[in-house]
Inverse folding.
């Protein structure tokens, strides 16, 4: 491919403007600052970039010294997917917990407080909320990231979330269009396919996006999924039928369209990120998200040059690239003029929401624990969106309430016997995540409950399996706030 490293013309600047790259480290590298000076308008942050609120403030100030309206984006859903609190777990419950409460005012308050915290750190663009309807209980990547399985519920909470987040001056990016809920494959690993017909898609998947558009969402993120009823040949991110005809024309959406991470295998393993980026912009995408796994100047240069070459080869109309770049700049201008509201901070709203989301069932009257228990965490492999660096469970919160609490992590066919042996005479608190998706986890619970019927079960995923145990607590998510709410019940705090 021809390199245009020395070009400073409008075409090259537009190609840089539509990129949303990530980077490594907790300070902006020189190459990134240089690219911002050349026209790059967006930067994506991940957990690897965040050590503390103070450090994040310094980082975003460093970026704004190069461009005062730079879009600083983050993947901060709250709940299981957190970057702001990646090392501690989120102090906000996620979507599934908010959907379980089903109080749209509470969802608005939670999103507004999350937005205030992001804005205070200099972040003005959030790749959230997830508007996916979790219609497939076996979905390996959405799950508790969804408000639920009912389209109307998901729609009203998506709109409430968008309203709350943007009230803090942070642009919402509703995802994953046209809906990732009815998939059995994680698009981080391969290309999922949804075989629902157009009527089902319209009534189910699209309802939350209509609500988000009506609420004024500033951005929509495309999904790397194949939906044959809409386009039998190309995944949504690369489909003009999906992005231009459906989203722009039929749904009347006029904001920014962002791709999901182009390094995800659904795209990189099929079309490649360079070819995929050209096709995405040609199809109607305005911003190319890349950087979850690829985070260097070489990637930015390759994508910039691929877009320029696509224009010069006639594969990407120059006016389409110019339109995409202007939409990015328009959103940047909105964030620069939408000052965050410092008033109305509510530091306890996340915990209040987590407490309200609990569903507690039991075989009989429950007496709170007074002696430190043994926490057996039956731990599945985390999906890439959640990551494995964020702690989850109830151990830390129980240990604060019942000093001396011990814990272990178990997985696989021997999880049950191993947990029994490790617990000894202590009361067992078994913590699970999506029991219905993991036969080994259900078998481990069978073993624990047969030997120790007084075992307490805490389900921190989607509570699809029937409740069991002396006490069963469904938290509807694995955030730190949800863990604390469950621990309060167990300890009677």
């Amino acid at each position: 491919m021809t390199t245009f490293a020395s070009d400073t013309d409008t075409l090259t600047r537009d190609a840089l403007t539509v990129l949303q790259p990530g980077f490594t480290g907790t300070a902006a590298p020189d190459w990134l600052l240089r690219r911002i000076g050349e026209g790059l308008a967006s930067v994506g942050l991940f957990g690897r970039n965040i050590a503390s609120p103070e450090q994040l403030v310094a980082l975003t100030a460093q970026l704004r010294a190069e461009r005062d309206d730079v879009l600083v984006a983050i993947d901060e859903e709250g709940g299981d997917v957190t970057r702001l609190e990646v090392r501690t777990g989120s102090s906000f419950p996620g979507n599934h917990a908010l959907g379980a409460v089903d109080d749209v005012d509470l969802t608005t308050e939670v999103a507004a407080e999350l937005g205030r915290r992001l804005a205070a750190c200099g972040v003005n663009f959030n790749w959230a909320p997830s508007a996916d309807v979790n219609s497939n209980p076996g979905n390996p990547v959405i799950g508790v990231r969804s408000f639920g399985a009912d389209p109307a519920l998901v729609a009203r909470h998506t709109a409430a979330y968008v309203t709350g987040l943007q009230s803090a001056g942070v642009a919402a990016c509703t995802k994953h269009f046209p809906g990732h809920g009815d998939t059995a494959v994680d698009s981080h690993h391969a290309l999922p396919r949804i075989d629902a017909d157009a009527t089902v898609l319209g009534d189910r998947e699209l309802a939350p996006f209509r609500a988000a558009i009506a609420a004024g969402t500033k951005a929509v993120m495309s999904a790397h999924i194949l939906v044959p009823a809409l386009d039998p040949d190309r995944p949504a991110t690369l489909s003009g039928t999906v992005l231009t005809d459906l989203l722009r024309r039929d749904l009347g959406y006029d904001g920014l369209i962002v791709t999901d991470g182009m390094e995800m295998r659904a795209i990189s393993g099929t079309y490649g990120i360079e070819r995929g980026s050209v096709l995405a912009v040609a199809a109607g995408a305005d911003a190319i998200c890349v950087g979850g796994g690829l985070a260097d100047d070489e990637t930015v240069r390759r994508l910039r040059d691929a877009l320029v070459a696509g224009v010069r080869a006639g594969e990407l109309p120059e006016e389409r690239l110019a339109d995409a770049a202007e939409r990015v700049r328009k959103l940047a201008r909105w964030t620069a003029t939408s000052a965050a509201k410092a008033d109305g901070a509510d530091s306890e709203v996340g915990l209040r929401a987590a407490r309200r989301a609990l569903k507690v069932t039991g075989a009989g009257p429950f007496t709170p624990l007074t002696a430190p228990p043994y926490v057996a965490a039956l731990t599945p492999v985390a999906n890439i969106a959640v990551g494995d660096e964020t702690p989850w469970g109830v151990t830390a919160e129980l240990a604060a309430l019942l000093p001396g609490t011990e814990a272990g992590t178990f997985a696989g066919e021997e999880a049950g016997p191993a947990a029994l042996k490790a617990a000894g005479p202590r009361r067992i608190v078994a913590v699970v995540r999506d029991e219905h998706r993991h036969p080994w986890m259900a078998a481990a619970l069978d073993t624990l409950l047969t030997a120790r019927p007084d075992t307490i079960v805490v389900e921190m995923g989607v509570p699809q399996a029937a409740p069991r145990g002396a006490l069963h607590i469904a938290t509807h998510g694995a955030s730190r706030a949800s863990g604390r709410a469950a621990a309060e019940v167990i300890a009677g705090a």
User: Anything to note?
Assistant: The two ends are 64 Å apart (CA to CA). The mean pLDDT is 92. The chain is about 40% helix and 10% strand.
